[in-house]
Amino acid sequence: MSPAPVVRAGRTRSAATLLVLTVLLLVSVTAGLAIGSVRVPPGQVWGIVTHALGAGWQEPDWSRARETIVLDVRAPRVLLGAVTGAGLAVIGTALQALVRNPLAEPYLLGVSSGASLGAVSVIVFGVTLFGPVSLSVAAFVGALGALLLVYATARTGGRITSSRLVLSGVAVAAVLTAVLDLLLLTTDRGNEARAVLAWTLGGLGGVAWGMLWLPGLALLFGIGVLTAQARNLNLLLAGEEAATTMGLDVARFRARLFVVVSLVTGVLVAAAGPIGFVGLMMPHIVRLFVGGDHRRVLPTAALGGAVFLVWADIAARTVAAPTEIPVGVLTALCGGPFFLWLMRRDARRGTDRGVA
């Protein structure tokens, strides 16, 4: 078969996948707004939303309480879930290309732990140097520091293996988590310590509209930069030598994207806490449908991550109601077995090879 039909078939499959995921995201958002301790019919959900946007044609037939539940309680939470899921999936996709490792993702590499430590330090010590964005700035610094430390530790003799990268990530995450726990145990702010401890499990509760603008901007920035660099990410998959031959300054490119990855991860962790395994699972799942080209993988992974985390949050709110399960616990229950399967698959294929 000639290349042209193959390319057209790939584009058609990618477009179809994006369309399906877009529809699924709309359905997921509707479910997130409708499902809870107070059930709201889907038609009424969209009536409330369109009426709030000034586009509703029907007279309100719902109570003020239901309108408050949909618009002020559930809508910010659902949107944060979609933004966080999309951002983590995109960052996981980029990390797997940057370090050429299928097991790379913010949680496993200790990036989320670094961001958590930075954010918790701001809360415990009451640092407000950067005003309302102090939490996100500290999380960014922690994420970048953790990522650089893991990369430097895993890279010996100019090469990195999958096992060494994961072990370095686990070790760094363990140390950072221990420091975080020490801060919480020694702080005099008992109420804040309990709230922070719950936050470290990952959760979307308590979010307000005023908290959404920064994660939204971080997601748009991350997707924009990474999509613009999709060709260079594709080059990295062929190896550093091949990428250099094609004119890519690998060291400078990797350093710039490490900053971007850390920035987006830090903002998302500051908003929702450390939520693991979304960035591990989504890239692998979407590649089954759209192939390995990052121009297709990045937007598809973003939609897939958004859908997944919205439904994970719905489950967190309803499975053990009235008790709410931290959404990070549910993503770990899904991602842990996926991680073990991925390791076994790569071991069978002999993919624990060095990465220059």
From TrEMBL:
Membrane topology per record: Multi-pass membrane protein
Chain segments annotated as coiled-coil in the UniProt record: none
TM ranges: 78-99, 106-127, 133-153, 165-185, 197-221, 257-280, 325-343
Subcellular localization, as worded in the UniProt entry: Cell membrane
Pfam families: FecCD
InterPro entries registered for this protein in UniProt: ABC_BtuC-like, ABC_transptr_permease_BtuC
Tagged with keyword Membrane: yes
Keywords: Cell membrane, Membrane, Transmembrane, Transmembrane helix, Transport
SUPFAM superfamilies the UniProt entry points to: ABC transporter involved in vitamin B12 uptake, BtuC
Family of this protein: Belongs to the binding-protein-dependent transport system permease family. FecCD subfamily.
Name recorded for this polypeptide: Iron ABC transporter permease
Native species: Streptomyces edwardsiae
